[in-house]
Amino acid sequence: MSAAKALPSAYLIAGIGNRTMPYTRHSAGLLMVNALAQSFGLNLKPVRGLNCICAETTTRILAGTKHEQSMRFIFANSEAFMNLSGRPVLLASQHYLGQARDPRSLIVVHDSIDLPPLTIKPKQGGSTNGHNGIESVKSALGTPDFWRIRLGVGEYDRSSGKKEMVNFVLGDLTGQERRFFGQPGPGVDEVWKAIEGIVEQNIKGGGSSSGKHKSKAKGGRGDT
């Protein structure tokens, strides 16, 4: 009988998008990861050789539950264009999590045109839903089994054509969306709840956490 697989001792929270267009729908993931880092008083900074800007912290999570513990989190935003996100995410995961990293310890935060605006939905593995950034990460890692947190930027009718879809994802976020995805917007607190849910799912050995929600609840960070 094989030994149980060790649980992740650290998590890489990776944002993907187009850094030269930070307030477009396609860059919602970059905006969110930067906001998460700021909520811990951190500033993302370049790390040599990674093509990412990064910061890390150790904080207590799952407060008040039997799974409460200290956990290391690394926040990293890819500096590459969306379609080339895979290599920076791979390099960051190797740098911070090691060569023998567990795909469950990677959480990629990205936009989704399959979800209503201001919706947050965690997912592990499965289809990339045609998202080129996620396709790139999947290809670079050689596995689809990492976690994703999808940020709804509007349900788009794909039958309208590729050109129209590109124009949509490269369009600007509304003021409401920028507030929701940016600190101190409630979206930041909801994404942190989703991250804690992913950690708990991994501890319990459960499957994908796929609950979709739109919430205005406010949460807090653990003690750093």
From TrEMBL:
- Give the matching Pfam families: Pept_tRNA_hydro
Matching SUPFAM superfamilies: Peptidyl-tRNA hydrolase-like
> Basic residues composition bias: which ranges?
211-224
The name of this protein is Peptidyl-tRNA hydrolase
Disordered, as annotated region: 202-224
Q: Determine if Cell membrane is one of this entry's keywords.
A: no
GO terms for MF: peptidyl-tRNA hydrolase activity; tRNA binding
Q: Known InterPro entries for this protein?
A: Pept_tRNA_hydro, Pept_tRNA_hydro_sf
- Keywords per UniProt: Hydrolase, RNA-binding, tRNA-binding
Source organism per UniProt: Calocera cornea HHB12733
